[in-house]
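Lecture notes, part 5. Sequence design as translation. It can be helpful to think of inverse folding as translation between two languages: the language of shapes and the language of residues. The source text, in structure tokens, appears below.
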């Protein structure tokens, strides 16, 4: 994959997203530049954030039975996932013990993995366990809360609108718990448009998953606005949907040649992972995770 300097990469993102460099520099700022010094990062989420070996996710829960090669050290990718790159970008050490994300996690208490070991490993449950153990958090911790796609797989029978509403309620509860525990900095993200992922494309129901994505992201923006109005904590929302759209519309700009097919099929790697957007049917390659980290880093502050 083409190696970009940080400035070249950011300017490429701005161009792809249709945002002028002057506007961005004048009106926006990274989560770090606008929130002050961050000394640690605590993560809640699903497989896109699950840190694999040493973290609290699927690899450790299954006693290393899941996440063997070609997956990288228990991650749902072929290399480091975005929090590892993000920590480097903001100048802190990545601590896998502060990564509570679990593959398969839904936004509430549950997980889509049908195994008793994954009971109460949803995102809200992750936050509850953390707050119970840490009722008064360091104000210099950045809390990350990102996920939601597992609420909407083809096996979920909850109606789409109810699933979205439930997700917003879960996020509200999670943020309120963090705020009560002295959280000063919270980073969240929209969902990629589900119909663009190989797994959901196979369902041949683009209209349905497109509608879910639009409804989810629209309501998430509104929910975050309400949460911001009720708290002194700074909540930053990164538009991940827009980033994925930009990569798919301009793959060469980001160093990709394949933005539609999974790189790994039936456990066998197909071609060069560095030029693929998708590692498998629903997860990204480490090449995209690096881009994703910089996008989170540059998320505008409202």
């Amino acid at each position: 994959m083409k190696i970009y300097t940080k400035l070249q990469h950011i300017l490429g993102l701005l161009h792809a997203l249709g945002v002028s460099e002057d506007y961005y520099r004048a009106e926006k700022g990274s989560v770090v530049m606008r929130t002050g010094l961050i000394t640690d990062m605590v993560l809640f989420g699903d497989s896109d954030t699950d840190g694999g070996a040493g973290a609290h996710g699927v690899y450790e829960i299954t006693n290393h039975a899941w996440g063997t090669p070609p997956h990288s050290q228990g991650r749902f990718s072929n290399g480091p996932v975005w929090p590892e790159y993000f920590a480097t970008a903001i100048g802190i050490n990545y601590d896998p013990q502060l990564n509570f994300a679990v593959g398969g996690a839904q936004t509430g208490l549950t997980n889509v993995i049908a195994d008793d070991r994954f009971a109460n490993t949803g995102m809200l449950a992750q936050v509850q366990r953390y707050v119970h153990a840490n009722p008064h958090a360091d104000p210099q911790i950045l809390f990350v809360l990102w996920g939601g796609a597992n609420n909407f797989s083809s096996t979920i029978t909850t109606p789409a609108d109810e699933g979205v509403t439930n997700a917003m309620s879960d996020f509200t509860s999670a943020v309120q718990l963090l705020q009560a525990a002295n959280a000063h900095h919270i980073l969240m993200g929209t969902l990629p448009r589900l119909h663009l992922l190989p797994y959901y494309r196979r369902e041949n129901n683009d209209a349905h998953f497109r509608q879910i994505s639009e409804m989810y992201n629209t309501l998430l923006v509104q929910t975050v606005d309400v949460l911001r109005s009720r708290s002194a904590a700074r909540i930053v929302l990164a538009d991940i949907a827009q980033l994925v759209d930009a990569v798919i519309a301009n793959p060469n700009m980001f160093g990709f040649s394949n933005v539609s097919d999974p790189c790994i099929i039936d456990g066998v790697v197909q071609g060069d992972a560095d030029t693929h957007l998708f590692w498998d049917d629903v997860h990204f390659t480490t090449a995209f995770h690096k881009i994703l980290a910089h996008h989170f880093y540059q998320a505008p502050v409202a």
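The translated text above is only one of many valid answers, since several sequences can fold into similar shapes. Residues 6-297 form a domain with the Rossmann fold fold (CATH 3.40.50.1110).
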